[in-house]
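F.,

This is the one I mentioned.
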């Protein structure tokens, strides 16, 4: 109706008319979105396509594309619809966006409408001689592969088969087009169409199988490699693509490059000449483009030659992935040898152009070339699609791998030397407005991993020696800071592959490190931070070697403690370098921690402990350092303490460490004021609390069967500090310092686990259990439950102890027997867990609490705790007599209704254990309706993890209660939203599945898949 058209035009005018009323624009946008989904949109669309202005037609064709891709067809014959679209295309021939959508409509119609039996012939008949013909031909293939187009799998396969049978027809049409009569836009469309139809041939089974006998256009035959050869080799459009690489239009160049990429996928000798033509052209165009790019200042994003250089280097990377190695090893003519040499030179030049994307694509050329040689990409198979034809089948006398290696060695030798330039930071990063630090760091990491792979070919020692040449200039004072930093970076990458102490370059670099904080190197800005972060990284990666060199170890420790770390806070940096400062600080603190942990035995044996630890403890008191980094230094200190050996000595030193941090913790407890906010908006806890907890848990002692439980250093200090520690826990829970709560209970779990043989008989374990229950009552978070779950296993009467074997003298595990009555510690575990379960069930059953929705993970952890303890024979018979257990089972329905897969899975684990051999619990009447209810919701929402969890629970009650489950499913309120009759069908499937021996799980899963399929069909129909 005309009124519908006018209303639609009114909303289109409001949305696209440039109005200033946000409310009206939003209302019109919502109305038009609903209109596009409605069933009466097509008549309005057809009217607007025929008579609308450019804005109306743009909206109409956009709507038509959306409806076609969703499977909704126009209410008129395909030919009439195409004629209508072509008429609009003639009216708006100069407007690219409208014409592309009109072409897209035609392509989608051919893909979706089963009445179009010959899509290509239909399109050619309707569009031949029109401006949109080339666009439509290219879009036919694009839409055939487009997952947004709602074509069922079999229908898509049939459409692809029909397109494949008409490849020859399309190729002849494309080759017949006169490229000289086309403008740049039309030439781009021609090349794009050619590329798309070449791409389509790779889905032909005959091409994949390497059939080379041409079909000569036999009807209903899909093409093979012989046919593709006829479409490509010596044909005019291939020549056009080669020449188009030098087109002044970037879009035409990119389209020609896409054609070349497709042709590179065909790897038989017949295509070698075409590949060489493209390579020669790429070299010529690339040298011209890269010559215009700067190697001294970073290129602006809108540089005139940037797009061309990037397109060329990306195509060069495609050569490296596919045919370059073959051309290299089989080059006989001077022209081929020259093209290879110039291509390598071009890629090397791309590595030093001041543009990250160009460098990255140039780097990919070498990476792909190495990968093909190392057969990491499956020889020379096409890794982008179907494997077509490998080089090994070429009967051309290809060289063996050793000969390839000899030819590649000089190439990658030059690559390594060039990378020593490519990976350097700018000399003054702050003065380079177009330098992007995050992108460059990502490129350096990619370059580092590539260099690691290259070391397999040219050897790690060769790379290290090349770095050593540049390092010699630094030792003589003739190198800039970025050259020295690049040496550090490269050696850091090579250090894990190098044999410790087998070269002199890495030791020389480590010996030079203390100078990076000296006056010869930058003292401010990002350059100073970059130098220090690199120093911290190489120390972190070489601690295994440093600890073997007494003088170097002491020198490095003194450098890090007295110079490197203190200097970071003195660096004047811009606000935008805040993240770089934090990264530098974290790397250097980690490096010092690793060095302390690695060199702890040397530190203790040389008597450096007291002096070093005093210095490190002073560093942890520096407020300008992030608290997490300071905590890392505390753990490094604890590693040194653990190496002291004598418990009495460790106890004295640990008391000093704990006392040092206890003062700050007391101040924080007295005035628990947050130190600002964290990035997620939560209050940032006082640093003193976290450092105090780190100090108490920093020492990890080796397992021992020493019976002196009362004097275990860590447990003893923990007991001495318990009053303050419990106050810290109370403050952290009360003020919602979640990070501190998590760290506290992880630390308790860590301490008890590490000293488990002594913790089972130590009083502090009892205090920890009481604290877990008390903290959960105060705030229902997961951390106390996680700690309680771990302690329930460690402190159980059924446990494995570590004892000394009387024969071998080694420490071995010994299994203990279950006592008739639980020990005092096991009884305390039961009491703590009972308090947690009672608290959880009370909160769940409190009307309106919404506990399971607010704390789904906590609820799941409680049920997981219950399930784990029920599996332990030490606890099982005591748990089933808990008075509040039935209360918790009544809360199961509330938990499951929240549809949280983790909580549901934990519930069903607990249910399995509780109902196994204990039918008196009477959980079936509560659980089956609850599980069926959640099953119905989960299937409808597509929450597969929850469906799986519910199925596990249902399976527990079958086949004995299959009828009850099926009946409940048919009558559940949640299944009323399913399509009519579907619940009954699933109920029948469940009954059938329950009767199949050992096939219940698979039967249930098949029922779910069938159920979801039926729902999807119903949704499509709607």
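My design for it:
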């Amino acid at each position: 109706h005309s009124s519908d058209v006018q209303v639609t035009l009114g909303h289109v005018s409001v949305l696209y008319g440039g109005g200033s009323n946000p409310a009206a624009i939003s209302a019109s946008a919502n109305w038009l979105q609903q209109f596009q989904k409605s069933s009466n949109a097509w008549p309005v669309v057809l009217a607007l396509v025929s008579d609308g202005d450019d804005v109306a037609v743009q909206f109409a064709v956009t709507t038509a594309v959306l409806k076609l891709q969703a499977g909704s067809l126009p209410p008129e014959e395909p030919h009439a619809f195409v004629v209508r679209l072509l008429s609009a295309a003639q009216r708006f021939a100069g407007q690219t966006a409208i014409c592309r959508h009109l072409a897209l409509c035609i392509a989608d119609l051919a893909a979706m409408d089963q009445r179009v039996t010959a899509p290509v012939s239909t399109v050619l008949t309707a569009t031949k001689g029109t401006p949109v013909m080339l666009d439509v031909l290219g879009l036919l293939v694009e839409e055939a592969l487009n997952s947004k187009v709602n074509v069922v799998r079999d229908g898509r396969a049939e459409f692809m088969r029909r397109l494949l049978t008409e490849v020859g027809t399309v190729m002849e049409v494309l080759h017949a087009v006169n490229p000289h009569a086309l403008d740049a836009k039309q030439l781009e469309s021609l090349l794009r169409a050619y590329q798309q139809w070449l791409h389509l041939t790779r889905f032909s089974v005959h091409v994949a199988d390497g059939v080379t006998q041409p079909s000569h256009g036999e009807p209903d035959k899909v093409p093979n490699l012989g046919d593709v050869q006829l479409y490509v080799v010596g044909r005019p459009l291939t020549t056009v693509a080669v020449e188009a690489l030098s087109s002044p239009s970037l879009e035409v160049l990119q389209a020609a490059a896409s054609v070349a990429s497709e042709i590179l996928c065909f790897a038989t000798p017949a295509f070698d000449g075409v590949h060489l033509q493209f390579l020669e052209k790429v070299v010529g165009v690339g040298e011209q483009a890269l010559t215009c790019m700067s190697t001294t200042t970073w290129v602006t994003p809108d540089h005139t030659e940037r797009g061309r250089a990037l397109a060329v280097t990306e195509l060069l990377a495609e050569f490296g992935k596919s045919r370059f190695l073959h051309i290299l090893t089989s080059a006989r003519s001077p022209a081929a040898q020259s093209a290879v040499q110039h291509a390598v030179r071009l890629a090397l030049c791309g590595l030093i152009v001041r543009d990250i994307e160009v460098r990255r694509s140039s780097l990919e050329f070498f990476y792909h070339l190495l990968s093909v040689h190392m057969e990491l990409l499956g020889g020379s198979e096409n890794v982008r699609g179907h494997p077509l034809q490998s080089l090994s089948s070429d009967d051309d006398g290809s060289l063996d791998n050793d000969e390839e290696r000899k030819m590649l060695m000089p190439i990658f030798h030059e690559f390594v030397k060039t990378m020593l330039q490519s990976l350097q930071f700018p000399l003054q990063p702050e003065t380079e407005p177009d330098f992007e630090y995050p992108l460059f760091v990502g490129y350096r990491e990619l370059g580092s991993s590539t260099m690691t792979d290259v070391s397999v070919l040219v050897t790690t020692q060769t790379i290290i020696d090349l770095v050593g040449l540049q390092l010699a200039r630094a030792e003589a004072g003739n190198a800039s800071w970025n050259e020295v930093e690049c040496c550090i970076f490269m050696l850091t990458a090579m250090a894990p592959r190098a044999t410790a102490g087998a070269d002199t370059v890495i030791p020389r670099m480590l010996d030079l490190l203390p100078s990076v904080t000296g006056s010869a190197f930058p003292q401010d800005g990002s350059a100073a931070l970059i130098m220090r972060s690199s120093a911290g990284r190489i120390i972190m990666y070489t601690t295994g070697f440093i600890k073997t060199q007494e003088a170097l170890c002491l020198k490095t420790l003194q450098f890090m403690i007295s110079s490197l770390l203190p200097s970071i806070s003195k660096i004047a940096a811009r606000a935008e370098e805040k993240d770089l400062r934090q990264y530098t600080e974290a790397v250097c603190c980690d490096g010092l921690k690793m060095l302390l942990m690695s060199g702890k035995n040397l530190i203790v044996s040389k008597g450096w402990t007291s002096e070093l630890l005093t210095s490190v403890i002073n560093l942890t008191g520096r407020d300008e350092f992030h608290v997490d980094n300071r905590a890392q230094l505390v753990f490094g200190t604890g590693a040194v303490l653990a190496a002291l050996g004598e418990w009495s000595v460790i106890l004295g030193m640990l008391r000093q460490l704990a006392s040092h941090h206890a003062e700050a913790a007391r101040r924080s407890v007295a005035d628990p004021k947050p130190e600002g906010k964290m990035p997620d908006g939560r209050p940032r806890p006082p640093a003193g609390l976290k450092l105090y907890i780190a100090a108490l848990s920093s020492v990890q002692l080796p397992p021992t069967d020493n019976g002196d439980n009362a004097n275990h250093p860590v447990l003893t200090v923990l007991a001495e500090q318990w009053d303050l520690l419990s106050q810290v826990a109370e403050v952290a829970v009360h003020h919602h310092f979640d990070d501190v709560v998590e760290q506290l209970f992880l630390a308790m779990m860590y301490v008890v686990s590490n000293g488990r043989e002594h913790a089972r008989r130590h009083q502090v374990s009892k205090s920890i259990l009481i604290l877990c229950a008390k903290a959960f009552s105060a705030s229902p978070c997961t951390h106390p439950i996680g700690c309680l779950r771990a302690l329930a296993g460690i402190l159980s009467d059924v446990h494995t102890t570590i004892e000394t074997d009387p024969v071998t003298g080694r420490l071995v595990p010994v299994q203990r027997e279950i006592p008739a009555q639980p020990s005092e510690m096991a009884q305390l575990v039961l009491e703590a867990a009972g308090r947690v379960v009672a608290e959880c069930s009370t909160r769940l059953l409190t009307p309106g609490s919404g506990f399971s929705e607010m704390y789904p993970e906590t609820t799941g952890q409680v049920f997981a705790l219950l399930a784990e303890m029920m599996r332990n024979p030490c606890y099982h018979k005591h748990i089933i007599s808990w008075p509040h257990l039935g209360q918790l089972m009544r809360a199961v329905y509330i938990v499951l209704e929240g549809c949280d897969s983790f909580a549901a899975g934990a519930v069903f684990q607990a249910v399995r254990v509780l109902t196994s051999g204990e039918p008196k619990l009477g959980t079936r009447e509560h659980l089956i309706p609850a599980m069926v209810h959640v099953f119905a919701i989960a299937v409808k929402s597509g929450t597969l993890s929850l469906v799986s969890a519910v199925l596990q629970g249902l399976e527990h009650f079958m086949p004995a209660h299959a009828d009850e489950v099926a009946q409940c499913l048919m009558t559940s309120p949640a299944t009323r939203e399913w399509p009519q009759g579907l619940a009954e069908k699933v109920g029948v499937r469940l009954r059938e599945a329950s009767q199949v021996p050992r096939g219940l799980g698979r039967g249930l899963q098949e029922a779910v898949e069938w159920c979801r399929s039926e729902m999807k069909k119903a949704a499509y129909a709607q």
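The chain has 52 helices and two strands.

Talk soon.
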